[in-house]
Design a protein that fits this description.
The protein is mainly α. Helices cover 59% and strands 0% of the residues. The protein has one domain. The radius of gyration is 15 Å and the shape is globular.
Amino acid sequence: MSRFRYHNAERWMTTLEAHFLTEPRHAKEALHQAGFVTQQALCAYLLDVGFADAWNASHIKQDIAKALAYANACGFGHDCPDMARLAAVLSPYWKWGYHYHEWEEDRPRTGGFVPATITPLVRALVDRVHDVTGHPRPKGCQRRPQGARS
């Protein structure tokens, strides 16, 4: 199940990287997808260290900040302050999938994150899950070296 969750994260990460870097005005959609990717990736790690899927579903749900805190407390070792700040903005990530009224006070706050700042943070987290779990990347999701062009 851990490998399945990690592969889900990688596949959706590919979409996040391809679509939202070319559409920088879609922060809300990028945050929703980033929440899903991050939740799947962190769940993969938590499954590997012994947390049951049912426990994750009932205790962590879509709280990315809580998932990251549990993972780091269990040796994940991804102590990136910007990722922690993004995790707080994402939590719970379902809020980014809903349309809000036009009134400013009803909208969740993006924390200043835009797709160009979201994507590298989530990519680093997914790469960390790959490194610590040892799961192979799914076909079509092979990482290009930094600076390589497509």
